[in-house]
Amino acid sequence: MPAELIIPIYVFIFLYGIVIGSFLNVCMIRIPRGESIVTEGSHCMKCGYRLRWYDLIPLFSYLFLRGKCRKCGEKISPQYPVVEFINGAVYVLIFIIKGITIESLLICLLFSALLTLSVIDFKTYEIPVGFNIFIAALGLIRLFTDLSNFKEYLVGAVSVSLFLLILLLVSKGKAIGGGDVKLMAAAGLFLGWKCATLAFLIGCVLGAFIHVIRMKVSKEGSVLAMGPYLSAGIFISALHGQEIITWYLGLLGL
Q1: CA 88 to chain centre
Q2: Are residues 196 and 204 in contact, defined by beta-carbon separation less than 8 angstroms?
Q3: Long-range CB contacts (< 8 A, 24+ apart) of 97-100?
Q4: Which pLDDT value is given to residue 187?
């Protein structure tokens, strides 16, 4: 790729990412409330002011309005620009690591879904099934772009999720949630069985380590939302799973 095109392409990717990030905020706020993300127009949560197009420019509108509603002056949650920026920045990072490929685009969309469901699960302890369906759809697309390894993806859909389903049934829902089972089935279809297994292990380690700290520091209860930790493991595996597996097997001399 010509050097003079690299920066403009990454700028475009970042802008595309923050636009998607703006939609993610809508999902994070409205889905837990049971509100439509399609038919309901954007509005101030306090005064009901219908936002104009110039109030909805990702990042820039928040900065221009100084984080307040144009009409009533109610403070706007900093979550909006933070999510937009993170989504845009991670999109750029993914394309830097993976190159300008279809795989990079799929991982970007995967990240957006994981980020959104993580926030929702953290707040509600539920993973809306629509996100798992979306991730499974991404997995099918990836399977058809890599048909030579289709068995690995199909096995991936059950390699971890079957174990979690048995755990769900045996514990009667006390050890794991149904949303987590569906998440790992969808993610396994996207990752393949090796990276899906790695993703689950990373998620468990992160969940145990971070939640123990939260229990000590903020007096959290023993119940934790696994979605955010599984999502972190899935994203890490999507980016570097094969490299991590190869490195680990090398340590074992395999």
Answers
A1: 13
A2: no
A3: 97/239, 98/239, 100/1, 100/9
A4: 97
pLDDT per residue as tens digits for the range 83-126: 999 999 999 999 999 999 999 999 999 999 999 999 999 999 99
- Contact call for residues 25 and 86 (beta carbons, < 8 A): no
Alpha carbons 149 and 223: distance in angstroms, whole number? 38
Domain map (residue ranges) of the chain: 145-254
Q: Residue 223 class from Cβ within 10 Å (0-12 exposed, 13-18 middle, 19+ buried)? A: exposed
Segment 208-226 mean pLDDT? 81
What's the sign of the alpha-carbon dihedral 32, 36, 38, 41?
negative
Q: Is the pLDDT of residue 11 over 90?
A: yes
Say what the alpha-carbon torsion angle 214, 220, 226, 227 is, to the nearest 10 degrees.
-90
Dmax (CA) for the chain in angstroms is 65
∠ CA 213-214-215, nearest 5°, is 90
- Write the DSSP string, 2-53: -HHHHHHHHHHHHHHHHHHHHHHHHHHHHGGGT--SSSSPPB-TTT-PBPPG
- Whole-prediction pTM: 0.92
Give kind and range of the element (H or E) at residue 92: helix 79-98
The C-alpha atoms of residue 62 and residue 187 are separated, in whole angstroms, by 34
